[in-house]
Write a structure and sequence with these properties.
Elements: H1 2-13, H2 22-42, E1 47-50, H3 58-65, E2 75-78, E3 81-82, H4 83-86, E4 91-97, E5 104-112, E6 117-126, E7 131-140, E8 149-160, E9 167-173, E10 184-189, E11 194-197, E12 208-215, E13 220-227, E14 232-240, E15 243-250, E16 254-255, E17 262-274, H5 279-292, E18 296-297, E19 300-301, E20 306-308, H6 326-338, E21 345-348, H7 384-392, E22 396-401, E23 405-407, H8 411-415, E24 420-421, E25 431-434, H9 439-455, E26 460-463, H10 470-476, E27 481-482, H11 484-503, E28 509-511, H12 521-524, H13 541-551, E29 559-562, H14 567-572, E30 577-580, H15 591-604, E31 611-614, E32 627-634, E33 639-646, E34 654-657, E35 667-672, E36 678-682, H16 683-688, E37 690-693, E38 699-707
């Protein structure tokens, strides 16, 4: 009966042929109306997926969920009709994609409607990690405008488990430019509870974070990553005690497509895990990200660098690098080399462009973006002499750009007004949005920035985005085509970055958007957030501890800055990548301290790519009266580090932690980096409870441990 009704419903999404008889048309409409009344009775709603097998065979999972005659685990409305009612009757196809990796299976499934809408779903399965990911594309292959496409959900499925009980959502706060950025949270769901989460402002990790862990009561769970550098949404609905409905997609999409037009959706990753400890899922996901969603150079994982600036914000009242000159930058490079403080990368941040140094007239880098030429007064030969000096001492050279936010009256705004989006709803703002969704503008940008990078000897590219683009997208959507401007802009951003990475095969991209406000599944494969938050309280290292602690649950590659040289502050900024902004010309700073800290960082940096164990829970991490501690473990070497902080107003002289990832039967040598003391402990004892101590508040503990071979 349902298949017959699905075939009848095709009439509602097709263009009605002119020759159809009035009698037949009336009959079809009557049956269609009848179905509308009875639809809720027969509707299959979302796909139900029984998670009876603890271990997921991703090859079989894909073949089963996307099989012919099955409703796939995504959904949309087309012409007012839900896809689960009609898609099984659409023309179906499947194509195997040849992959160079035997552990990865990839297929493209297509569904063609009678009126020419083609839905293609590119699915990848990662056998080693139990992960499946896909994205949808919609193309109108007819000669007429398509019917309206809406309610697009890249994933729409109800996951059912064999055991009943509360579900837990483990997630992190998004970026607020605050101490609580990426703070770990857990939401316990009882039957009937639901939650919708989404970012704000059109930047993917502002306000909410597009990675989370759905833990079931059956010692199984799903790690989720959403890939969309715009406004995504995710909805969880705990319908009963053994199932969770999960939906995700792009929030603002209701459009028809022109003849030949194609759009894409957000991508989704589901990684299935099993175990009594939810950190099993988190660490499995961290390893998956390193293997399949991190930048590769010559087929190998590209480690992100230890960076340094050029006496950050020196001198006052200059901001960032608004007053730097080529001579000063080259002299500082020589100074770094003199004292053995050479980083992997010299990082030239905002302020090098034309107009940014006119501080006497109220100008700075922030209100001159759009003047994307090198300030020839300060850099008469461009940035190439600075790049050459960095290369001579064995370092790379990275430069900051912000091409999307253009200030009225600047070079780009005057020369290319046709590529600028201006808010009529807010005429007082000086911000214009560069229209990356315009193919001509995007192509021009690729060439322009690419040529600047090549001419100036730039190795790594840093992109900022200090503008909330969603208002511009909504204002410039055509009537009846909500979401198209956002889609085109996001597609343009990916095309731009992909162009740079293809043109410069050894390039790394630093992804900054007022700090880490554009972190998602799509961006982490092309870039990394080397400056994960614009939390400006540089005298508050506790905030940087919080950011590291929370982000490490999901992502192994991220970084931040450090201005101080005391061990407590320096260790507070430890991550897999780091930028030290020490003022090496300040006589009050110790070069010896700087050398020692760089040596310490080089020694422990590899551990930040290992498994992660938070040792102080997920309570309020922002208080200055608590301990914060975490562990990083390399399972292949059975060794790791423990980093801990006793904060300024903490009244506890010690902290007992339970270490993870250790062999209970093995012995481990624990080395205290500060005291030089080495002691041996049994793995079971370390897992049951290990005591950390400091002599006074506002001190750190750094321990290294390794398995003892008898």
């Amino acid at each position: 009966m349902s298949v017959i009704l699905e075939n009848i419903l095709i009439v509602r999404v097709m263009k009605i042929p002119e020759r159809i008889s009035f009698r037949k048309l009336v009959c079809c409409r009557m049956i269609g109306c009848l179905f509308c009344l009875l639809g809720p009775i027969w509707s299959t709603a979302q796909v139900r997926i029984d998670m009876t097998d603890k271990s997921v065979d991703v090859d079989r999972w894909i073949n089963t969920r996307f099989a012919r005659g099955k409703v796939p685990p995504f959904s949309f409305d087309y012409g007012g009709v839900a896809s689960d009612r009609v898609i099984r009757s659409w023309r179906y196809g499947v194509e195997n994609v040849v992959s160079g990796d035997s552990s990865v299976v990839e297929k493209v499934y297509t569904y063609r409607s009678p009126d020419g809408l083609v839905v293609s779903c590119r699915v990848k399965g990662f056998k080693e990690f139990g992960a499946v990911e896909w994205l949808l594309r919609f193309k109108n292959t007819s000669a007429q405008n398509s019917a309206t496409l809406s309610q697009v959900k890249t994933v729409d499925a109800e996951f059912r488990y064999t055991e009943s009980g509360p579900f837990k959502l483990h997630y992190a706060e998004g970026n607020h430019i605050s101490k609580s950025d990426y703070h770990p949270r857990t939401r316990v769901f009882q039957s009937g509870d639901s939650l919708t989460i989404k970012p704000v402002g059109g930047r993917s990790s502002e306000g909410n974070f597009p990675f989370f862990n759905i833990e079931s009561p059956a010692e199984q769970g799903i790690m989720v990553g959403i890939g969309w550098t715009g406004t995504w949404f995710a909805r969880l609905d705990n319908r009963n005690e053994n199932s969770m409905l999960f939906e995700a997609g792009m929030e603002n999409l209701e459009t028809y497509l022109y003849p030949g037009e194609e759009i894409r959706t957000p991508s989704i990753c589901l990684m299935f895990w099993q175990g009594a400890d939810r950190m099993t899922g988190h660490n499995q996901f961290r390893r998956f990200v390193l293997a399949h969603h991190s930048r590769k150079i010559d087929g190998k994982f590209a480690e992100y660098p230890l960076c340094s600036g050029f006496n950050y914000r020196d001198p006052a009242p200059c901001t960032e690098y608004s007053c730097i000159t080529a001579d000063w930058a080259v002299a500082l490079i020589h100074r770094y080399a003199q004292f053995g403080l050479i980083p992997d990368v010299f990082w030239l941040d905002a302020g090098w462009h034309t107009g940014a140094s006119d501080y006497l007239n109220g100008k700075s880098w922030a209100n001159t973006t759009g003047n994307w030429t090198v300030d020839t007064t300060r850099f008469p030969e461009g940035l190439k002499p600075v790049a050459d000096a960095a290369h001579r001492v064995g370092a790379k050279f990275m430069v900051w750009f912000e091409p999307e936010r253009v200030i009225k009256g600047t070079q780009w705004a005057v020369e290319h007004p046709e590529w600028m989006l201006e808010l009529s709803s807010d005429p007082d703002t000086d911000y214009l949005l560069f229209d990356l969704g315009n193919p001509e503008a995007c192509k021009w940008l690729c060439q322009y920035i690419g040529d600047m990078i090549e001419e100036n000897g730039i190795d790594y590219y840093r992109q900022d985005c200090n503008i909330q683009p969603d208002r511009y997208w909504r204002e410039y959507d055509e009537p009846g085509r909500s979401g198209i401007k956002e889609i085109r802009h996001v597609e343009g951003l990916y095309a731009f970055w992909d162009y740079l990475l293809e043109r410069f095969p050894n390039m790394l991209i630093d992804n900054c958007a007022s700090g880490g406000k554009r972190i998602d599944l799509e961006t982490i494969g092309r870039s990394a957030p080397l400056w994960r938050s614009d939390y400006y309280h540089y005298d508050d290292p506790d905030g940087y501890q919080c950011h590291t602690y929370g982000l490490n649950f999901f992502l192994p590659v991220h970084g931040t800055g450090i201005l101080q040289t005391d061990p407590y502050s320096f260790r507070s900024s430890l991550s897999s990548t780091l930028i030290y902004n020490w003022k090496i010309t300040d006589p009050d700073e110790s070069i010896l301290d700087m050398q020692e800290l760089i040596h310490e960082y080089r020694d422990i940096q590899p551990y930040y790519y290992g498994d992660y164990y938070p040792l102080t829970g997920i309570g309020d991490q922002t208080s200055d009266s608590v301990w914060l501690a975490y562990q990083l473990h390399l399972p292949e070497k059975d060794q790791g580090i423990i980093v801990a902080f006793c904060r300024q107003h903490c009244e506890q002289e010690s902290l007992t932690v339970c270490c993870g990832g250790l062999d209970a039967a093995a012995d481990y040598e624990v080395f205290n980096v500060d005291t030089g003391i080495r002691e041996t402990y049994n793995g079971a004892a370390l897992a049951k409870g290990f005591v950390l101590k400091t002599e006074q508040p506002r001190e750190s503990v750094l321990l290294k441990y390794k398995r003892v071979e008898h």
